[in-house]
Amino acid sequence: MDASKLLAGAKIVPVVVIDDVDKAVALAECLVAAGLRIIEVTLRTAAGLEAIERIVDTVPTMIVGAGSIRSVDQVDAVMQAGARFGVAPGATGRLLNTVDRAGLPFVPGAATASEMMRLLQRGYTLQKFFPAELAGGIPFLKAVAAPVPEIRFMPTGGISAELAPDYLALNNVAAVGGSWITPQGLIETGDFEAIARLAADAAQLGM
Ligand code: 3PG
After folding, report:
1. pLDDT tens across 45-77, in order?
2. Shortest CA distance to 78 belongs to which of 109, 59, 38, 70?
3. Which residue in the list 11, 23, 40, 53 is annotated as catalytic?
4. Ligand 1 centroid to residue 179 C-alpha, Å
5. Rounded to 10 degrees, what is the CA torsion of 169, 42, 92, 172?
6. Residue 8, Cβ neighbours under 10 Å: how many?
7. pTM metric for this prediction
8. Nearest CA to 182 among 32, 8, 74, 57?
9. Which class is domain 12-205?
10. Which of 16, 127, 134, 179 should be mutated for ligand 1, with most atoms under 8 A from CB?
């Protein structure tokens, strides 16, 4: 299922890697207070799934998605945890069949024109362009805008506070994702004041 509607104009999607599940709620509250209303919690750490569950239960205004989905088993698990959408670095037929069946709004990853076209054929008009900076960045997105005008992207991977506005200025970019708003080091030390400042700056770019 295409996730375009869910994004509903949100321009910034913080990508969060949580090691300590006890920090999840404070982190989400800090982002909401800064004006951000969508978050991608990656399944890269063992705490990811429980972090999603806790944020969903405690911070109802936050739209919580699950990132780095790679296996079909994770689809069920994230839905049970309450994730409203899923994000993946790429896509496989099996994974797409599973999210379709489950009805999970999904942002599949693509980095080449053929991958993008295959996803478009399956109805995905919102795609994650990953890893954005390494896969060609802004020049690449400009180059595909004319040949594949139907697709809007959520570039992620290597995007910084400085680069984000340039990505967002492109017509085929719906939102940008990234971990620059919630650096792992700041989460680990519990420096939510610093995260709040980064989040407030990001929110200025469009919530
Ligand atoms: C992701 O999982 O989407 C990316 O690894 C996040 O990329 P970043 O850490 O470079 O922002």
Report:
1. 999 999 999 999 999 999 999 999 999 999 999
2. 70
3. 40
4. 6
5. -10
6. 10
7. 0.95
8. 32
9. alpha beta
10. 179
